[in-house]
Specification:
Mean pLDDT: 82
Order of helices and strands: HEHEEHEEHH
Number of domains: 1
Number of strands: 5
Structural class: alpha+beta
Distance between the termini: 101 Å
Number of helices: 5
Helix content: 40-55%
């Protein structure tokens, strides 16, 4: 019995499978590193967006708090960032060590317009001695809230958002303390 002849090896092909496998491994490694870099960038972008959204909602809560205070206590005074701080509830453990928080500064609720309102004549009936004097109005207010996300005592802020809002109350009396802010330095802080 004779065996078929074994083909002679070509000298140029020896070890070529090793080189092809090594080249494929390098290409796959580069693709893997690129995907890891893209994923890391997307995670950082998502974290930044979440921080900005939390700061926006903190400013929005400052507006809501100012509106509620004006409505319930006839109080138009501004709130400083040190007076109104929102602690991050999702990161309580981190917050105790780092002091992660939103500081919200809210301007005074400035009355900008006070036209007569449809319900005011009912509320004013019998309320005044002088004919034509009106005790109640539809009072339009404007307020601005500026929220800053901070860590500890670091003066550098992580994010900042500013929100402005108009709101109207009727029937509403003219409150002298609110009108005192019109034309003051506090009025210059209001952004519309």
């Amino acid at each position: 019995m004779s065996h078929p002849p074994v083909p002679a090896r070509l000298h140029g092909q020896s070890g070529s499978a090793y080189l092809v496998a090594l080249l494929a491994l390098v290409v796959l490694s580069i693709i893997g590193l690129a995907l890891a870099l893209i994923t890391q960038t997307e995670m950082q972008t998502g974290a930044s967006e979440m921080t900005l959204q939390r700061t926006f909602y903190a400013a929005d809560s400052g507006i809501s708090r100012s509106m509620a205070r004006t409505f319930s206590h006839f109080d138009c005074t501004p709130m400083l960032g040190t007076d109104f701080v929102i602690a991050d509830q999702d990161l309580t453990a981190l917050m105790t060590t780092s002091g992660l928080r939103e500081e919200v500064a809210v301007t005074a609720a400035l009355p900008i317009n006070d036209p007569p309102c449809p319900l005011c004549s009912i509320n004013n009936a019998g309320g005044t001695e002088e004919k034509g004097k009106q005790d109640y109005y539809e009072v339009h207010h404007v307020v601005t809230a500026d929220a800053q996300r901070r860590v500890g005592t670091d003066p550098q802020r992580l994010a900042q958002r500013q929100v402005g809002s108009f709101f109207a109350l009727q029937p509403w009396p003219k409150i002298k303390d609110c009108y005192d802010y019109v034309g003051s330095e506090e009025a210059a802080k209001v952004k519309m």
